Amino acid sequence: MLKLVFSILVGFVIGGYGFNHGADLTAFEAYVKAFNKTYATTSAGTFANYYYIYNRNQVNQHNAQQDRNRTTYREAVNQFSDIRLIQFAALLPKAVYPTVSHASTAIDTTDPVSEIDIISDLGMNVTVANQGTNCSSSWAYAAAKSIEIMNAIQTGNLNPLTLSAQELLDCAGMGTACTTQVPQIAFDYLTQYSNLLTDVEEYPNNNTLKTQGMCLPDQISTGVQLATYATIAEGDDVSLQRFVSNNIPVIVEYNPATFGFMQYSSGVYVPPTRIRTTSSQFLVVVGYGHDTDTGLDYWNCLNSFGTTWGENGYIRIIRSDKYPLAKNAIFPNTF
């Protein structure tokens, strides 16, 4: 009986939002159009409407605090604003790592500079990827993007072709490409079997798939050959800074299961001290610096949520001993 009353109450509350013909409904319709949303059923649309309004209100409350300098970053409505935080976390399951590593000794580096932004300092033209909302594929996008950036630097081509994450998903995914896979598998696919990583013109990305596709080797005729990769010890942010300072894009595993990360828009993101859920999103660290507005040091990281998320697809994360970033850090080493 109690369960029935609860279900009726939830249905009433959600329905109240779902059939609001005022400003809330107009805003939701604009959101659906802006982010090309479709829902399988009327019920799914009603739930999406409810959570969009709830998340939008949370964003507004957070930004009101930021206006008073009580937080260090801003939030915004984005492609995830029509789902619950628990659903967002479930889209990005905890990564599972292989027991054997083929990592090599890292290339020599010099002492770090005070600040750097690999992309802007070198004037590189790097396209921000969008992994979509169907597949936990950041491992493949981060691997492809790190190789693309480092190879472009080494060859002097500052307008590189975008390398194919879809090739890694299809050919190296090992059945878990959309769930728990990791960048090391992408690097092993390239280094241990002498495979080429081709560009998206030959092997297009497809972020609408919910599972990996069939590997198409006939579409891989040209590309980049990665010789070795290297890793950084857990929590060793000193080494992370040194490698990034030497124009090496480093992939790190990050726990995105917070409302602040899900709706991040700008500023220096500081995670809460307690995060209830553990998820995995792989980011490419491409710089670090100091933010004068907040007085905080930060890491600049390239994500794969597209340009409508964060600072045109990037996120600045607090750089502090209290919040070490070098988690399962890995990077392309030699070509």
UniProtKB/TrEMBL annotation:
Gene Ontology molecular functions: cysteine-type peptidase activity
Organism of derivation: Drosophila willistoni
Domain Cathepsin propeptide inhibitor: 28-88
EC number: 3.4.-.-
Domain Peptidase C1A papain C-terminal: from-to ranges: 112-333
Domain of life: Eukaryota
Entries under PANTHER family matching the protein: CYSTEINE PROTEASE FAMILY C1-RELATED
Gene: Dwil\GK17940
Family to which this protein belongs: Belongs to the peptidase C1 family.
Position of the signal peptide: 1-18
Keywords per UniProt: Hydrolase, Signal
One family name in Pfam for this protein: Peptidase_C1
BP GO annotations: proteolysis
This protein's name: Uncharacterized protein
